[in-house]
Write the structure tokens for this entry.
Amino acid sequence: MKTTRILTGLAAGAALIALAMPATAQEGTLKKIKDTGVVKIGNRDASIPFSYLDDKQRPIGYGVDICLKIVDAIKAELKMPKLKVEFVPVTSQTRIPILAGGNIDIECGSTTNSVERQKQVAFAPTYFMTGTKIIVKKSSKIKGYDDLKGKTVVFTAGTTNERAMKAYNDEKKLGINFIPSKDHAESFLAVETGRAAAFPMDDILLYSLRASAKKPADYEVVGEFLSDDPYGIMMRKDDPAFKKLVDKTVIGLYKSGQINKIYAKWFQSKIPPKNINLGFPMSAALKELVKNPNDKGVEACGKMKC
Amino acid sequence: MDFSVFLQPAFSGGGIYLDWVLSGIKWTLLVSILAWIIAFTVGSVVGVLRTTRLAALRAPATVYVEVFRNIPLLVQMFIWYFVLPEIVPEGLGDWMKGRMPMPEFWNAVLCLGFYTASRVAEQVRSGIQSIPVGQTYAGLAMGLTGPQVYRHVLLPMGYRIVIPPLTSEFLTIFKNSSVALTIGVLELTAQARQISEYTFRTFEVFTVATVVYVLITLAVTVAMRALENRVRVPGYMGSGK
């Protein structure tokens, strides 16, 4: 008797979820923005300097600036100058489901454009080029991936770096003990407190984390590139009208040279909250991408086989 | 919906995604059951202390309950994992962070155990205090000492009275064990998130996780109901249906 009632409840719950599912995100993003009067941007909390929080907890960064240019383009396209912008915090693990579910319209963070992710979402032309390395304490004497044998490595759940590192571990049989973490700041904390020996991440983010650490000189970014990670602005798949507008805006920034100003602001000047200058000039690879923009993805496991 | 996702080869470590689910279930059960042993033991002691007439014993027990019950579980999890190793002597802290086997797992067990203990303590206290005071007097009049009154009169009845609320606490501990994912224990919810991240089959994966949680808690409910019937004292309060 009791079990039947519980089962009925379960079935009813499942039916409700099933009903609610297809109702979202089927319309084009532009129509959705027009209807609601709001653009929702996904932001990160520690992807410095792409998308992170300043001392007043407002989202700022290279990606955020570019996203706001896209908002300007949407305003012009829809002739809605009073369009509202809403930031929604996402993590490496939640960004794709939240985007697909319709709670954000666009994400301008540090998302690698991978072939695998392209099955779920679409990417604008690459706006930064980086790759996986590891950060370690100088005192640990770790110089490369093979020194990680039997050690503990922390990773941010849901990143391409996690996959590259795990694929490397499987292939070289290093017997690494992995611990997952929620975001980059927390992963770095694990290295800082000595819980983990290393943290694999895109090198630019590692340099930024090191720069904002209490004692930057204690840490070192080591290793060869384990993967190539082109960053792209992420939006919903199968929405050609919206993608066209986003692509046009990004390529427009490249053609007009405005990108250089935005780039210099975040990578070659002092940035909040600690007034650090990352001193990271535009790489040859990114210069080439600015000249010839493309939205090609990479294989998720980097140099290893998946 | 396509549940064949669980039979696909897993991204790393060999095996299929079903193995990840099974491993998640294993850790959920291990964390919860070990934490429950701590919760029940510590909770019983603290609960008894809260009912004694000696203020010197009552006060620390009250402080324990108020501290552990009033701080959110998530915050406690972070304190055990991130803060504690930094405030204990350095050698011990280094051991807790590096050389201790499975630090995430043991931190989760201790945190969940001591947190739930504060709740169990309150249940035990209410059980003891719901017994008419005349029974204590009767015990003392028969020549039993204070501890003997607890052992032979108060605790046997007190525990029986609180089996239903203790069942709820036992169920809650399985559900609260998912908080352990925040410090890196790959229990059921963490594995579900991980599989959905790799396969993008969020709906299927969480459906399975939901069903597993329901099955675990139903099993606990049935077992506790059986225990309740087995130890029932005929004719005593609440048991004479």
Summary: Chain A is about 40% helix and 20% strand.
